[in-house]
Amino acid sequence: MSVTRRQLLARSGAVGAGIAFTGAVEQLFAGSAAAAPTGRHAGYGPLVPDPEGLLDLPRGFRYTVLSREGEPLRSGEGAVPSHCDGMSAFPGRGRTTWLVRNHENRPDAAHRVPPVAGVTYDPGGLGGCTALEIDPAGRVRTERVAIAGTAVNCAGGPTPWRTWLTCEETEDRAGTGNYTKDHGFIFEVDPYRRDRTVPEPLTAMGRFQHEAVAVDPRDGTVYETEDAFEKPFGLFYRFLPERPRGGSGSLRASGRLEALCVPDVPDLSVVQEPGTVFGHVEWKRVPDPLAKETGIRFQDFGPGGITHAQKLEGCYWGGDRVYFVSSFAKTADGSRADHFGQVWSYEPHHRRLTLVIVFGPGTDVQKPGDSPDNICLAPQGGLMVCEDGNGAQYVFGVSRRREVYAMARNGQNIGTEDEPAWGEFAGVTFSPDERTMFVNVYEPGTTFAVTGPWGG
């Protein structure tokens, strides 16, 4: 199916936002309030090969390995789990930083999240989260299990009340493998105190292949992405909690789960031009959020159906809108069109959806490569984007001038000489004082702290 921008505008009532990188993108690139424009050229110069073969960075930057899978957890509870994925940083006492880190463990994971009493949901689940406390000198002071017994904890998102929502990217039910309970839920994790993490799923927020979430700090609405692996592809959701201003209690109460519908656009991949705007999109109530008999994306949403998208991944709140990522779309997989990555924004006040950026195609540092995944605002202005594609893997920066630069490259070849492969980056986030970038390499699971001249 080939749909031109003119046809899309005529069929959906959308209005053009002009050329690419206008309108909503200004807030996307704003960074923190104190951020100054970057220098004449984007980025921090070429990457310098790391003699240790772990992480290549620009000159003047350095890294510390905070944690690596298979090593002992500092709590003595077992080994650092495999598959480090989504992550967020929270302020601690005395300029310390707390990191909450997901582990996307499936049943074949080499190192499970140890099943600690009091925070284990299902002993058959090998995934979960670990929490690390980092002191002002960048040393790990504490490292412990934060929640266990969940499965395939891919991404998630922080809340305004300083907890972490960890998401299961699976729909497996009790009785599948060693699982004793249903999976496919969101769980809330307190980064500061393990005894305040309740290992109970937030069932009102739906049971599906969750990827990431973002919370509107004004009213507590939670936006959720779904990374379904096959057709029909995933949906973009919002959860309206029963208590209008959110909070951990309200997420455990009842609420309304809805899915985004762009009239006459069944697949977001057909939208190809940055700056395309859809005004007054619809939200349709999910018939059965628990997917008791039918997966949500298969359910009947009534006349006009619902809008799907392949590889819905990263999701975060910035300014007055939520941003979310479609990592790629392939007609060979069943999408209506091909693309190498999209960033969308949704403005709740105007009910307006905008295609902000289209990535690639490109290779290495010339353009963003394959598949943007986890994404965050950078304190100096712009974005940091984790790549999850083919070939060498990068953390790319996108400057406030819309220029793309390489910030980090994974130096660890986990393939062979004939078929090289590098583990994806994930969980990019910045410390509350904006002096340190934390990022994970998925395999072998490694958490890095990167410091350097961020204001340059």
UniProtKB/TrEMBL annotation:
Pfam families to which the protein is assigned, alphabetical: PhoX
PROSITE patterns recorded: TAT
PANTHER family named in the record: MEMBRANE PROTEIN, SLR8030 PROTEIN
Name of the protein: DUF839 domain-containing protein
UniProt source species: Actinomadura chokoriensis
